[in-house]
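SAMPLE LOG
Freezer: B-3
Tube label: C17
Construct: single chain, 268 aa
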Amino acid sequence: MASLWGGLLYRIPNRARNTTFWNLRACFPQKSEEEMRVLARASLKNTACTALEMGKAWMLPVGKTVALVTETEGMDELKQALDSGEGVILLAPHQGNWEIFGIFICDHMPTTFLYQPPKIPAFDRLLKNARSRNGISLAPTNRKGVAQLLRALQRGELVGILPDQVPSNEGGIHAPFFGEPAFTMTLISKLIQRRRVKVFCGFAKRLPGAKGFKAIVEAAHRDIYDADLEISVRGLNRTVEHSVGLAVTQYQWEYKRFRHRPDGEKAY
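STRUCTURE (predicted):
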């Protein structure tokens, strides 16, 4: 079903298709037009997969959702960092299936995830009910939510953040993402300076042949710990870049990552 849906999105002019091509051309200018078409088609299919998999992430019993992850990489290092009792920040970019990844990674781990409440109250309730089934606490993207994250880190718990969401005007700065200026959140860098916690990045990679997912977790780029805010934010984007490189077609290129342009540049 996702293959058919993704194929239609690729063939019929629409915003998702346009955004995908814009992002890919900006981030991979060295690639040929044919390579762009191959990447765009695969990306649209994977995004369709993610959308259709949400039922499994939100509605299945937690045990069955966790069982969808059939392979792992880097989990031991994450657990060792948590065992230190200092708290851990886990970056979960828009890659693979982040809903299934969140439920899997938080299984038997006290976790607080930052989330952006939807404008529709009914959808917000659905989202909170689905994501909190595994004992996950949700922190809204406001001052109250940031305080909630800090308390979780003080307790030595795991804090999850989607690092590639476009922040509010006062919550970000521009930093290179695949060489293109992207308005990037400063919250993660500021949390690190407050608590000096370890940072990891991970995603659930979709395996071929409907064989489930592989949860991949890796340490963040060393620059993310720098006291200089600009260097730290660049380190954040370099961390996400490396994650994208592990499964380029499973990154959500349909998201308008570059819509907040530097002064004087035209938005898309």
